[in-house]
Amino acid sequence: MFDRDTWQEIFNTLKKNKLRTFLTGFSVGWAIFILVMILASVNGMQNGFYSQFNDDATNSIFVRSGTTSKAYAGFEAGRRIQFKNDDLDYIEQSFPKDIEYISARYFTSVSARYGSETGSYSVQAVEPDHLYIEKTQMLSGRYINETDMVNKAKVAIIGRKVAEDLLKKEEPLGKFIEFNGLPFRVIGVFTDEGDANAERRIYAPISTFQRIYGNTNNVGGIALTYNPNYDLTEALEFSERLEILLKRRHKIAPEDQAGIGVWNYAQAFSDISSFTAVLNTIGIGVAFLILIAGIVGIGNIMVFTIKERTKEIGIRKALGAKPRQIVNLVILESVFITTISGFIGLMFASVILGAIGPTINTPAFTNPNVSSSVVITATIILIVAGVMAGFIPALKAAKVKPIVALTDK
Amino acid sequence: MIEIKDLHKSYKMGSNSLHVLKGLNFSIGEGELVAIMGSSGSGKSTLLNILGMLDEADSGEYTLDGVPIKNLNETKAAQYRNKFLGFIFQSFNLINYKNAAENVALPLYYQKVPRKERQEKALKYLDQVGLKEWAHHLPSELSGGQKQRVAIARAMAAEPKVLLADELTGALDSKTSYEIMDLIQTINDQGNTILVVTHEEDIAHMCKRIVHLKDGIIEKDEKVKQVRASAYV
């Protein structure tokens, strides 16, 4: 196959029909160009979706409470559901094997003051585990710990932007910032590379805020991560069990979607994955249909070439070429044309993506690129296409009788 | 070397059947130089096709170097052709984008001889036909006689049992024809079996034996006194 004589023959036929080879090769290159552009775009969309989520743990589940929309168990519709601390204890006790980290959350906003600087910030009052659920990146200091929780300590972890806005260039750790007039000691600073808005947040112990705001046990929402070894099915099954349990505990109709919302990353991921998989399939399908035109074109040109070379093939057979050797030669030639033109298409697509890809950066479309899987897919398609295109001409060539070598024109 | 018994061949032409070979019997021994003569329609091309395994007889036996040639599939026929036969054609049939040496090496390529050995052998046979210096020229740069010499070198390269030549001087002027026949005689003198199909009397008389075909039967099979071509060169 990798014989110099074989390649000499292939190059010779291609050289004799330069324009024909170019025109047919173009259709294949064009098809691959479109294929790669489509796949890269889908890839860009996928990247866009995932980058929206990537600052959270991918095995997290968020539970929020709402207002019931159906009457159930003697309660009227429109009842407000309120989670409390013991809901978390109950969940933890019910699913000891399923839960990795769990934290109550309570969202509020405060007006903060340090010296003469003031600003309005959102506060997430949480528990120590929340560090791992939100994947908070600490710049300095520490996160909330159990002692803070027990003592209901007035401590805060502030975002990098908060520190910049309020404290300017001062070292934030140990400084006291007033939240709605109450002094909180800064014990940590965090950052978020992906999202500048997240750096305008403040974390504080939930127990502290529960005491300050009415001495309640109220919890705004529950964030948790499940056992990271779970696959999608197990994850979905667990989030379903969790939902059933909480609905029963709060006497909400099982089909009532408004009372409690359980939002599972795994579900969102699988939705996006299947969505992009569908897009990928459509893309490959469309490109393949275009490619068929190219295959027919190459098959066509090769039937002609074989016809022109009938005599030569006859001579070869008279000299002892086996039908198989002739078939191999023709198919190899076809695979060669498709592969080369396909790779030129692939190269063009890569160059264009390389040039414009980084300039596109909307949330829904990030870094469209050609992954190795795209290259492998394209290569396989090209080889298959080449074999398909060469098949009929090859059979035609194999049928040439060596007797034509004797019939003199 | 070649043994033919009661060979029949007919072609279907619509509803009629054309009986071309009507029971041929002859044998050719090793080292013979035989001319098959006949006018067009005598069946000599059909006979050559059958001898060259390009066509198959309807009935009769054909044995080549002790091997019965019968019911060959294409692959087997290709193998036998490569092993037993060297073809020399009227129009040379060189491959125009391959140089002389590559053309000569082609049968060896189909024998899967390694590239280096192929090149060595090709040069050796080109030397035998006196064209060693032309090894790297394309057929378009050679004269008709030179092309036929390359073709002869190619036919010999695979070291076949029999050389089959079909009107090998048909496209050449008489001077070049005699040069080619001189070469054929030299090769025959070295012990090679050669079968020449021709309709030219003078060429036929440069062989050692002439088989006359007429209307599908052997009219005459005679040993002749060989005219040495070198006398005319």
What structural keywords apply?
heterodimer; A: 409 residues; alpha+beta; 2 domains; six-stranded mixed barrel; two-stranded antiparallel ribbon; 12 helices; B: 233 residues; alpha/beta; Rossmann fold; six-stranded mixed β-sheet; four-stranded antiparallel β-sheet; 7 helices; 10 strands; globular
Mind sketching the topology for me?
The complex is a heterodimer of chains A (409) and B (233).
Chain A: H1 4-16, H2 18-53, E1 60-65, E2 83-84, H3 85-94, E3 99-114, E4 117-126, H4 130-133, E5 137-141, H5 146-151, E6 155-159, H6 160-167, E7 176-179, E8 182-191, E9 201-205, H7 206-212, E10 218-219, E11 221-226, H8 232-249, E12 260-264, H9 265-308, H10 310-318, H11 323-356, E13 361-362, E14 365-366, H12 372-398
Parallel strand pairs in A: 4-9, 6-8
Antiparallel strand pairs in A: 1-11, 1-12, 2-10, 3-4, 3-7, 3-11, 5-8, 6-9, 7-8, 13-14
Helix pairs in contact in A: 1-11, 2-9, 2-11, 2-12, 9-11, 9-12, 11-12
Chain B: E1 2-13, E2 16-28, E3 33-37, H1 44-51, E4 59-64, E5 67-68, H2 74-84, E6 85-88, H3 100-110, H4 115-128, H5 144-157, E7 162-166, H6 174-189, E8 193-198, H7 201-204, E9 209-214, E10 217-223
Parallel strand pairs in B: 3-8, 3-9, 6-7, 7-8
Antiparallel strand pairs in B: 1-2, 1-4, 4-5, 9-10
